[in-house]
């Protein structure tokens, strides 16, 4: 059973416009959510995160929104740039203390930003 | 700093062969883990370790062994490779923050494994 789902395998956006990537989860025990970005032939890199006690977190062009009642989070990139073209993974974890960052990842969404 | 280093980058095995994927980190991180990435499945946790001598299973541990003799190294062993283990493997590490481990993982660049 997929606890974290990214239902859009791909997304294409024009440079300068907004990119919105979506993620749904089923486990209400998740208390921390992250987005990772992955370029081809590289490992994922951390992008932005949000705790379940917040509903929004911003970092420059990137904003993550969390809607706990809908069990939904989204990543907004404004404005989108060609260098943002990559695969984006959302991830979630629950507070299992002293057992490490056991992240549950979604399937990923491939973002393509067209010049 | 090199960060998280994985070797080899590519490997082709025949069914039944064994091999070890190497992972080393130079950030003195307590937590290390192995993930596999498959199309349409995202990244799935295989095994993890919260320190030298301590390992535990993740979501998909079958067919894989790990050990952690030092803080720096966390090798992943395939004892008898199967075609279902064809995947891209990522090693990741993080440090401890209070009673939790930092979920902001640092990943290696991956090992692409094909089992024929």
Please report which band the strand proportion of chain B falls in: under 5%, 5-15%, 15-25%, 25-35%, 35-45% or over 45%. over 45%
Largest interface: A-B, 29 and 31 residues
Number of strands of chain A: 11
**Biggest sheet layout of chain B:** 7 strands, mixed
Number of helices of chain B: 0
| Helix percent band of chain A | under 10%
Terminal Cα separation of chain B, in Å?
36 Å
Order of helices and strands of chain B: EEEEEEEEEEEEE
**Biggest sheet overview of chain A:** 6 strands, mixed
Contiguous low-pLDDT stretches of chain A (5 residues minimum) are none
DSSP E strands of chain B, number: 13
**Termini separation of chain A:** 38 Å
Structural class of chain A: mainly beta
- Give the assembly state of these chains: heterodimer
Shape of chain A: globular
The SSE string of chain A, one letter per element, is EEEEEEEEEEE
Please characterize this protein's 3D structure.
The complex is a heterodimer of chains A (115) and B (116). With 115 residues, chain A is mostly beta strands. Helices cover 0% and strands 52% of the residues of chain A. In chain A, strands 2, 4, 5, 9, 10 and 11 form a six-stranded mixed β-sheet that branches. A five-stranded antiparallel β-sheet of chain A has the order 1-3-8-7-6, with no helix packed on it. With 116 residues, chain B is mostly beta strands. In chain B, 0% of the residues lie in helices and 53% in strands. Chain B is globular and about 40 Å long. The N and C termini of chain B lie far apart (36 Å). Chains A and B meet through strand 4, strand 5, strand 9 and strand 10 of A and strand 4, strand 5, strand 9, strand 11 and strand 12 of B.
């Amino acid at each position: 059973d997929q606890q974290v789902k990214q239902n859009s395998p791909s997304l294409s956006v024009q440079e300068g416009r907004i990119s919105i990537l979506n993620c749904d989860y089923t486990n209400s025990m998740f208390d921390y959510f992250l987005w990772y970005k992955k370029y081809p032939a590289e490992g994922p890199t951390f992008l932005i995160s949000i705790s379940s006690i917040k509903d929004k977190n911003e970092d420059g062009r990137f904003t993550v929104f969390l809607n706990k009642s809908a069990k939904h989070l989204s990543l907004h990139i404004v404005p989108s740039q060609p260098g943002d073209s990559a695969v984006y993974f959302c991830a979630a974890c629950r507070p299992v203390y002293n057992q490490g960052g056991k992240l549950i990842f979604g399937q990923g969404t491939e973002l393509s930003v067209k010049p | 700093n090199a960060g998280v280093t994985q070797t080899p980058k590519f490997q082709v095995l025949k069914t039944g062969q064994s091999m070890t994927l190497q992972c080393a980190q130079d950030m003195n991180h307590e937590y290390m883990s192995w993930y596999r990435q498959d199309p349409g499945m995202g990244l799935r946790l295989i095994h993890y370790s919260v320190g030298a001598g301590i390992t535990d299973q993740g979501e998909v541990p079958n067919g894989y062994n790990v050990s952690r003799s030092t803080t720096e190294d966390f090798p992943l062993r395939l004892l008898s490779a199967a075609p279902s283990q064809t995947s891209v493997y990522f090693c990741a590490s993080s440090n401890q923050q209070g009673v939790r481990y930092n979920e902001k993982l640092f990943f290696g660049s991956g090992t692409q494994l094909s089992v024929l």
